Amino acid sequence: MKRVAFNLPTIIRAGNGEFQKLGVYVKEYVEGKRILIVTDPGIEQTGFVKQAIQMLEKQGFEVQTFNNVHPNPRDLDCTEGGEAARNFHADAIVALGGGSVIDSAKAIAILQCLGGNPQDYAGRDQVPTKVTPIIVIPTTAGTGAEVTRSAVITDTKKKVKFTIKDVHIAPLLAIVDPELTYGLPSHLTASTGMDALVHALEAYTCKLSNPISDGLAIQALKHIYPNLRTAVTNGNDREARYHLMIGSTLAGMAFSHADVASVHCMAEAIGGWYDTPHGIANSMFLPYIVEFNADAELEKHATIARTIGIASSNDSDQDAAVRLVSDMKQLAKDLSIPTFSSLPEVNENDFIYLAESAFLNGSTPSNARAITKEEYLTLFQKAYSKQPKEVLK
């Protein structure tokens, strides 16, 4: 029987309209008057940042904005943001955006307090003290970063991703408001929603799963899967948006107390090398890893299939797992997720390097089935060769 430790220091305020209480919440939870908003240019164009500034200033806060955050957040952006936070003497950081913004904000909080480079804190439990308090407002239903204690950053020189894992960077407060996702384009809804689905699936099947993370992962799947297609095709469906957002947060809680696995290892390899959006990268490899892993955790893969309604109790575990593989492939097609072979930057000569990068990822040991560098190479080749060339959507 497994011993379990569960520590979620993040306060969660979830529901429609919660964003409108930002100023009140910050006043309640933050000491001091200087707030640095970390965001990106795309979020600024939505008007959310302007609203946030107005709500904070109404409560007497002095506010500055740092918006130089790129997708697949970069070490250089974090270093620049850390300097901005330090020069401003920020008392708290408000991260307003998707996973890249949130992960950047976590690294910025570290660098404001401790200096150095993000790489100095890579690995597990390498942040020695508390850092600047972080308040997170996700604008996508995908990463679950609002409730995790990790930040995935790109090393721009080495073109690889590394992860900072430490309870000191867990957000103080997460404001989870589905209304902020209503205007999200369908392709972003699809890719971020698939990211959340992968988080739940890998948290449930990985070797570090436990009874608490299992419960969270199963509940996440119940929220995400039935609503993902609807949210993509009808972004104004309030019910679908709500369930997708709640499911994403649950999935974040699940994998942060278990782990992800080889889908993420492969996705982060191409994300670091090609700068591929993370949710798309996860979607590309999900069916192949599910197929690779199914026999190692047959009962759990079958449970997933039954939970999301594509298999029944009358189906054998083997048949249910087969249906899961097939459905994950079909789901990606239904959501118009690009295929691996459709990415113009992909070069088969890179696959040996990508396989090694995936193998060295810290989550490889957590995969349900032991996996070698050579097997990663085969999986990259399989994902590439089995998918027809098509136009990137």
Polypeptide structure, described:
The chain is of the alpha/beta class and 393 residues long. It has two domains: 11-181, 3-Layer(aba) Sandwich (Rossmann fold), CATH 3.40.50; 186-385, Dehydroquinate synthase-like, alpha domain. Helices cover 50% and strands 11% of the residues. It contains 14 helices and nine strands. The chain has helices at 22-29, 41-46, 48-58, 75-88, 99-114, 186-205, 211-233, 238-256, 262-274, 278-293, 298-307, 317-334, 351-360, 373-385, and strands at residues 11-14, 34-38, 62-66, 92-97, 123-124, 134-138, 150-155, 160-165, 173-176. The strands form two sheets. The protein has a six-stranded parallel sheet with strand order 1-9-6-4-2-3, with helices on both faces. The longest helix is centred in the middle third of the chain and has 23 residues, at 211-233. The radius of gyration is 20 Å and the shape is globular. The N and C termini lie far apart (47 Å).
Largest sheet: 6 strands, parallel
Large-scale geometry:
globular
Derived from helix and strand composition plus strand pairing, the structural class reads: alpha/beta
The neighbouring-strand order within the major sheet is: 1-9-6-4-2-3
Instruction: Tell me the CATH superfamily of the largest domain.
Output: Dehydroquinate synthase-like - alpha domain
Estimated helix fraction: 40-55%
Total helix count?
A: 14
